[in-house]
Amino acid sequence: MDILSLFVIVPVLTIIALLFTKGLKQARLVSMVGSIFQLGMAINLVIAYFKERAINDSIMVFTKDFVWFEQFNIHYSIGVDGISVALIVLTTIVVLAGVFISWKMADLPKEFFISLLVLSTGVYGFFISIDLFTMFLFYEIAVIPMYLLIGIWGSGPKEYSAMKLTLMLMGASAVLMVGIFGIYFNSNADGGALTFNILEIAQVNIPFEAQKLFFPLTFIGFAVLGALFPFHTWSPDGHASAPTAVSMLHAGVLMKLGGYGVFRVAMFLLPEGTIHWSWFFIILAAIGVVYGAFGAIKQTDLKYINAYASVSHLGLVLFALLTLNKIAWNGAILQSLSHGLLTAMFFALIGMVYGRTHTRDIHKLGGLMKIVPFIGAIYVITGMAYLGLPGFSGFVAEMNIFVGAFQNPDMFQRVLTVLAVSSIVVTAVYILRLVGKIMMGPLVNEDFKNLPKVTWYEKTGILLLLIPIVGMGVAPLWLSDMIMASLDPFIKGVL
């Protein structure tokens, strides 16, 4: 069995095992074992990747190819580079942390964990696919469970939020499908056979008129999942109604498919279309960065604050990609990883606070540092990392983005870069306000004096996220070098 297909097979085997479990105890045990095994596979993949890279300079390594539908040249084609390896590791960490944070999920636990694992299966398959049709198939597998996870296990207006999320993402999928088929039917422009294989299409000179037409469709199809302004409105509502682990996977993992798809498909396969349209979409991305930050300031619900912060930080990913600069691209990938860990951590902490106080309203919270010091301390650390404090993952990512983006001598892009940089100041405002009010401020509710202590499984989930956040900030070079080495094939098309 090849090393990559295991990332699809193991979650499926875990799902099958879950079908035979009875009760919460068995369901969470099977989910934990399966998720730990996936994390072990990811660590092994990193080690194997560096060994393979020492002797193999191909764009993708560990490639495998099996024919699915010969008539349309659809293959199960898989392979990875440094970017997809890093995102696979992120996925395994967030999934395992989500299992621990959901340790006491009493409502239909078997079905809940099955849905989580179906989502993660789609994500793994998406990151390893180098066939557009197969990639799109896994993309849909990852997106569809969100409707059930929010609609069944969510809170508040969960039916509305689930339906809004589904309709927005399905609409984007329809647009994306048109873009993918547009690429497919132009993949024989040099006289070869039609193909869905990304590496083969990258060698084809797709006509400029076709690139100009299909780039915006492909970009928007993926970027909606990455919270592109003004198509971001599904995200805050979805986050607010989702259960804690679902918010963690939604923001920490699922939304990364948007930026990855933009980079791997839209920009790589349609480079001339990228150059033609970059000025337009970079304006939308810059607006999203600033809008998300100011939107977070206006919110009073902890989940909505984090959701709008995610819109801002993921806007930075799209902004960095559209600058067409190698350093900024490196920052975009690092930002995807950093945001995935940080936003998952924030949602985990918010879930822990809500589970004890039964409120997410910041006006009803205060003085939590003295009552639950573990939550308070981690919240402060995560907040500092979120606003880009040196020594944490956020600083490394954002510095690469801003330095790379400002290298462009074009005044238009430099002005947008300064505008995007200003979001850091706004981020500091709402982060420091939150820390001061709900953690350091006076006790607002006397009923909160005796809140339950943090459990071992909650601490385990938090530490799983905290260790790589600090690790990325303290020792980023090995990860940055792995990503930078994978960017050269993309640069050739647009620079």
TrEMBL record:
<feature type="transmembrane region" description="Helical">
    <location>
        <begin position="74"/>
        <end position="100"/>
    </location>
</feature>
<feature type="domain" description="NADH:quinone oxidoreductase/Mrp antiporter transmembrane">
    <location>
        <begin position="130"/>
        <end position="416"/>
    </location>
</feature>
<feature type="transmembrane region" description="Helical">
    <location>
        <begin position="336"/>
        <end position="355"/>
    </location>
</feature>
<keyword id="KW-0472">Membrane</keyword>
<comment type="similarity">
    <text>Belongs to the complex I subunit 4 family.</text>
</comment>
<keyword id="KW-1133">Transmembrane helix</keyword>
<feature type="transmembrane region" description="Helical">
    <location>
        <begin position="276"/>
        <end position="297"/>
    </location>
</feature>
<keyword id="KW-0812">Transmembrane</keyword>
<dbReference type="InterPro" id="IPR003918">
    <property type="entry name" value="NADH_UbQ_OxRdtase"/>
</dbReference>
<feature type="transmembrane region" description="Helical">
    <location>
        <begin position="304"/>
        <end position="324"/>
    </location>
</feature>
<protein>
    <submittedName>
        <fullName>NuoM family protein</fullName>
    </submittedName>
</protein>
<feature type="transmembrane region" description="Helical">
    <location>
        <begin position="367"/>
        <end position="389"/>
    </location>
</feature>
<feature type="transmembrane region" description="Helical">
    <location>
        <begin position="165"/>
        <end position="185"/>
    </location>
</feature>
<feature type="transmembrane region" description="Helical">
    <location>
        <begin position="6"/>
        <end position="24"/>
    </location>
</feature>
<dbReference type="Pfam" id="PF00361">
    <property type="entry name" value="Proton_antipo_M"/>
</dbReference>
<feature type="transmembrane region" description="Helical">
    <location>
        <begin position="456"/>
        <end position="479"/>
    </location>
</feature>
<feature type="transmembrane region" description="Helical">
    <location>
        <begin position="213"/>
        <end position="234"/>
    </location>
</feature>
<feature type="transmembrane region" description="Helical">
    <location>
        <begin position="112"/>
        <end position="130"/>
    </location>
</feature>
<dbReference type="InterPro" id="IPR001750">
    <property type="entry name" value="ND/Mrp_TM"/>
</dbReference>
<feature type="transmembrane region" description="Helical">
    <location>
        <begin position="246"/>
        <end position="270"/>
    </location>
</feature>
<dbReference type="InterPro" id="IPR010227">
    <property type="entry name" value="NADH_Q_OxRdtase_chainM/4"/>
</dbReference>
<feature type="transmembrane region" description="Helical">
    <location>
        <begin position="415"/>
        <end position="435"/>
    </location>
</feature>
<feature type="transmembrane region" description="Helical">
    <location>
        <begin position="29"/>
        <end position="50"/>
    </location>
</feature>
<feature type="transmembrane region" description="Helical">
    <location>
        <begin position="136"/>
        <end position="153"/>
    </location>
</feature>
